[in-house]
UniProtKB/TrEMBL annotation:
EC id: 2.6.1.-
Protein's name in the database: Aminotransferase
InterPro entries given in the database record: Aminotransferase_I/II_large, Asp_trans, NHTrfase_class1_PyrdxlP-BS, PyrdxlP-dep_Trfase, PyrdxlP-dep_Trfase_major, PyrdxlP-dep_Trfase_small
Protein origin, superkingdom: Bacteria
Molecular-function GO terms, alphabetical: transaminase activity
Enzyme class: transferase
Domain Aminotransferase class I/classII large: residue ranges: 29-392
Entry keyword Transferase: yes
Amino acid sequence: MTLFSPVEMAPRDPILGLNEAFNADNRSEKVNLGVGVYYDENGKVPLLRAVCAAEEARVAEQGPRPYLPMEGLASYDAAVQTLLFGAESSLLESGRLVTAQSIGGTGALKLGADFLYRLLNKRLVAISDPSWENHRSLFEAAGFEVVTYPYYDPQTHGVNLEGMLEGIEKLPEGSVVLLHACCHNPTGADLSLADWTRVIDVIQRRNHVPFIDIAYQGFGDNLQDDAVALRLFAESGLPLFISSSFSKSFSLYGERVGALTLVTESHDEMLSTMSQLKRVIRTNYSNPPTHGAKVVSAVLNNVELYAKWEEELAEMRDRIRIMRSSLVEKLAAAGVTKDMSFIERQRGMFSYSGLTKAQVARLADEFAIYAVGSGRICVAALNTGNIDHVANSMAAVLKDD
Ligand code: PLP
């Protein structure tokens, strides 16, 4: 018996397993639609020109590398607030906002979860059905009971709003409700402005705690419209938790750049909340890394670089949109009679394609196309070089059913 001999293998991460199978496949036409990142037309993770410019300036500066404060780089935290709430928002000068730089969006969720664990007696969080896989694991690991509220309607390929409202209504009063601000992962189905108003109304009435995850700001319509849910929540006067991430919007996945932002009710609350949040940070990793935050801050705080970034973000968003409509067209041309136009209506990097587990398995076996068993496909992994093969192969498995 050794110390480690009782340790059992953890369950395999399904996405990692998929990547392994993809890498081991030697068919030249293979396509990986299981990924969670944006690929450009050449099938590569892009390095944005605005990021490059900010990095070059940072290297040229040859500055020292001291620790950051626990809550991160001040110019970065302020820029995050402006991006979330808009430059005109009265919240920016209200003294009620707490923002702490975090280790990506995941780190922000974990900071928020750890903080809420200390704050609440009833540790219950409701996530959408389905949601990003890590939401459940992360909150469970932080000591929460995790339940779901209805979200996706497979009939319409959109949101089951009535089910969602009813599900949130039925939760015990004071539950934490986790919501996706835009570009819902994994379904691509988003709420409309009118839908958000109704969701806010139930949350307010039931004294729930809203926690909004915004990991794809700029991938839906544009930076402002994609943040509309946050702004409506803020206007409602509810306390608010927001986890945000620049992994996708700056294509800075490995630099781990995110933030946790809280809307409190007064300046005093902000001060005490920030002091407690710093304790959570201090006892986890002490203070965040510098590079990603310096780069993002340099871009967001410089008029020319900001404009360049916004342009590049629009290029990514538009390319995904073109791939969506092209896929719908090509599926129809390949003889799929079922209405697939929902792919065009879904937003962000993903689409719940409606493919069954068996169809996904056939795509891998017969056509070297890899997707998640749930039928989630990453539209951002399509390009003009692989879309015909994907459309024809999807058509083949769809038509046989
Ligand atoms: N939230 C959602 C909905 C996501 O899809 C992701 C990443 O895929 C994250 C959070 C985590 O982002 P990050 O990579 O910045 O930790």
